Recover the amino acids of this structure.
């Protein structure tokens, strides 16, 4: 087959780029179809990636962006540790938060891909595993004061050597988790997905040749870099600052922690500077550098052209400054398990508030922060262990100029990529009975474009001795989803536990509980923040929201300045004009 130089054939470059994207997507579909973990199968809490031999990210399907953006750090740690000691048939594993990892549950599997005896690619998967041991629940330990209490820490290690399983490494890992069978199946699922990546990459090399693909990938990275530079150039030069808080760290419940950000724009270059953020916390909210960079990236890429590929070229014009010893770059061995959730969300919120000062038409109002617990125990119906992150309890996303927020969408660390589990499958996998899951009226911030709705999520426990760890933020007014440009914030979230035969009790965030048969747990998840002056929202849209039961008549009047007759559900025009004129 005649080889065509990619620089003279942009169509071929596009075809190869789409093929690489397709490979990562097929790897993801493989994981969805082969995993036994609901965290993968139901929620898609993982990312699949392809790298060049030198560690440059080429393509990615980031179902969960905060995982995807951290994957290059993990691959770099593996490649640097092993150097030239990488063989055809090897497979590597890694989760070390202080050497390229995010938090312990996000385990990376990396497979080198050889062609004509030389390393040419890496195929990787990285996802939240259901159990990493330690004192936590599904990886979250609100009382941990160092990373060693959070689970097994895996530096770059070889689990398969030249095609043969390293039983010593394998047993070392599985002997440190409670749900051995499930963890083993998940790791095999990740390994299988990288095998699909290797197979498809070799077919691509066979079809086009190594040189053609190498030149095409270089052009793809350069194109992404040009696109991002152009997007940054559209942001007015200057410095834009914002703060965002996290409720507490699980250890000191009376103190909130501050993410302080200055976004510096200089021509085609952008810097995220977290230098003024608080010092590292005693508890598990500290953000590893991989997670901090990934969180800043996902917030920015949520504001620019969605067709830009996230790869090594795309992140080239972006720098992140995060001083060591701070909450955005803690010293080893700080606890970090919650960094991918409340801390990522705080970073994203700070980025959007800062960018709203420069490009208000692109920024997001605040999204609901994660507030539902992690639970783990034995399901008496099946006799099997289970781990659950309660993805049914998602809140709403923030509004943007021209668009209301999305209802019941996964939080900002996923940019909506986290799927809601099927309620019936959830009841089969867990000893729970779903009693209520409904949109929550008036949970979203009012605005010219209102936030997406949050939910009320309540379930009954059907077994004893269920471990429960709450983790998250958004439980105080200062951390409710922020409104932008006159938009109102979303509501404050809450957790309630009703013990069998007792009165409801409000539950603390970042704490441990034991749930027993007959207990009922309820989550009130916030809606997103509003965007723009609520009095500029067309009265007809407010009336529609009232008729659909998502905005109350009282809120229509007090927040939007629209007076609606409760009997006829029609707008009182004179009263509405007076309210809006006064407001």
């Amino acid at each position: 087959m005649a080889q065509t130089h990619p620089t003279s054939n942009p169509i071929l470059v596009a075809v190869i780029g789409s093929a690489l994207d397709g490979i990562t997507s097929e790897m993801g579909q493989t994981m969805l179809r082969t995993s036994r973990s609901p965290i993968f199968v139901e929620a898609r809490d993982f990312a699949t990636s392809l790298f060049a031999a030198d560690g440059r990210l080429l393509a990615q399907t980031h179902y969960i962006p905060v995982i995807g953006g951290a994957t290059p750090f993990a691959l770099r740690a593996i490649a640097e540790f092993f150097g030239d000691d990488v063989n055809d048939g090897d497979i590597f594993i890694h989760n070390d938060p202080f050497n390229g990892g995010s938090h312990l549950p996000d385990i990376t599997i990396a497979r080198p891909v050889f062609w004509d005896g030389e390393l040419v690619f890496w195929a990787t998967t990285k996802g939240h595993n259901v159990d990493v041991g330690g004192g936590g629940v599904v990886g979250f330990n609100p009382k941990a004061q160092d990373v060693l209490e959070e689970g097994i820490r895996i530096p770059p290690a070889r689990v398969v050597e030249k095609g043969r399983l390293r039983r010593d490494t394998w047993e070392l890992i599985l002997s440190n988790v409670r749900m051995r069978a499930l963890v083993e199946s998940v790791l095999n699922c990740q390994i299988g997905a990288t095998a699909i990546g290797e197979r498809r990459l070799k077919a691509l090399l066979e079809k086009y040749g190594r040189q053609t693909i190498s030149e095409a990938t270089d052009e793809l990275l350069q194109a992404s870099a040009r696109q991002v530079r152009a997007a940054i150039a559209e942001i007015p030069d200057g410095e834009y600052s914002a703060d965002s808080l996290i409720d507490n760290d699980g250890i000191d419940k009376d103190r909130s922690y501050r993410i302080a950000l200055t976004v510096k724009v200089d021509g085609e270059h952008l810097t995220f500077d977290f230098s003024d953020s608080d010092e590292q916390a005693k508890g598990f909210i500290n953000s590893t550098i991989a997670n901090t960079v990934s969180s800043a990236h996902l917030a920015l890429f949520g504001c620019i052209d969605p067709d830009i590929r996230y790869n090594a070229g795309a992140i080239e014009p972006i720098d992140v400054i995060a001083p060591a010893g701070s909450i955005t770059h803690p010293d080893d061995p700080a606890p970090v398990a919650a960094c991918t959730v409340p801390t990522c969300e705080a970073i994203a919120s700070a980025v959007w508030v800062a960018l709203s000062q420069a490009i208000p038409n692109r920024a997001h109002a605040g999204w609901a922060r994660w507030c539902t617990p992690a639970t783990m125990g034995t399901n008496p119906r099946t006799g099997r262990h289970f781990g659950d992150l309660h993805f049914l309890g998602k809140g709403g996303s923030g509004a943007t100029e021209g668009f209301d927020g999305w209802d019941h969408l996964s939080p900002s660390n996923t940019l909506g990529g986290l799927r809601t589990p099927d309620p019936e499958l959830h009841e089969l996998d867990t000893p729970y009975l779903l009693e209520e899951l409904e949109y929550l009226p008036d949970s979203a911030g009012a605005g010219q474009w209102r936030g997406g709705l949050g939910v009320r999520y309540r379930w009954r426990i059907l077994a004893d001795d269920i471990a429960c760890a709450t983790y998250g933020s958004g439980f105080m007014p200062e951390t409710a989803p922020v409104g932008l440009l006159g938009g109102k914030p979303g509501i404050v979230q809450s957790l309630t536990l009703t013990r069998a035969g007792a009165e409801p009790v409000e539950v603390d965030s970042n704490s441990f509980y034991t749930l027993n048969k007959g207990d009922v747990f309820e989550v009130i998840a916030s809606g997103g923040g509003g965007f723009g002056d609520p009095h500029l929202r067309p009265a007809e849209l407010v009336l529609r929201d009232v008729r659909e039961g998502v905005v109350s008549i009282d809120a229509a009047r007090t927040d939007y300045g629209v007076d609606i007759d409760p009997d006829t559900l029609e707008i009182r025009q004179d009263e509405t004009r007076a309210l809006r004129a006064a407001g």
Remarks:
- The chain has a mean pLDDT of 96.
- The chain is about 30% helix and 20% strand.
- The first strand starts at residue 46 and ends at 52.
- Residues 298 and 555 are 33 Å apart (CA to CA).
